[in-house]
Amino acid sequence: MGPSPLYFGDDSSSGESKDKDIDTKAEILACAKKTLSKKQREQILDDAYNRYMFDNDGLLD
After folding, report:
1. Which of the four pLDDT bands, split at 50, 70 and 90, describes residue 22?
2. CA quadruple 44, 48, 54, 57: dihedral positive or negative?
3. Residue 12 lies in a domain
4. Beta carbons within 10 angstroms of residue 41's beta carbon
5. At what angle do helices 15-34 and 38-53 cross, to 10 degrees?
6. pTM above the 0.70 mark?
7. Which GO terms describe its biological process (predicted)?
8. Cβ proximity of 12 and 21 under 8 Å
9. Number of domains in the chain
10. How does the average pLDDT of the chain come out, rounded?
11. Does residue 10 lie in a domain region?
12. Beta carbons of 51 and 59 less than 8 angstroms apart
């Protein structure tokens, strides 16, 4: 069985790449923690839908 999709190995050799991996992992863990609560999970989905429904160009991509 291979590594999971969230596997962050030490395959990178540059410091900048490792920093990016750490930031990415932290972002994924923060989002995962928010999805544990049904209310927060539904709010994330509603916000994502409404973002494109109302054509809010100024929001983060």
Report:
1. very high
2. positive
3. no
4. 13
5. 110
6. no
7. rRNA processing
8. yes
9. 1
10. 76
11. no
12. yes
Which structural domain range is residue 33 located in?
A: 17-53
Would the pLDDT of 32 be above 70?
A: yes
CA-based diameter of the chain, in Å?
44
Q: Is residue 28 part of a domain?
A: yes
44: Cβ–Cβ under 8 A, 6 or more apart, which residues?
31, 34, 35
Number of continuous H segments (helices) and E segments (strands) in the chain? 2, 0
Residue reference for tokens 């932290």: 26
| AA letter at 48 | A
CA distance 19 to 8: 12
Q: Which residue from 16, 10, 50, 45 is spatially nearest to 31, judged by alpha carbons?
A: 45
3-state secondary structure of 9: coil
- What's the mean pLDDT in 18-32? 90
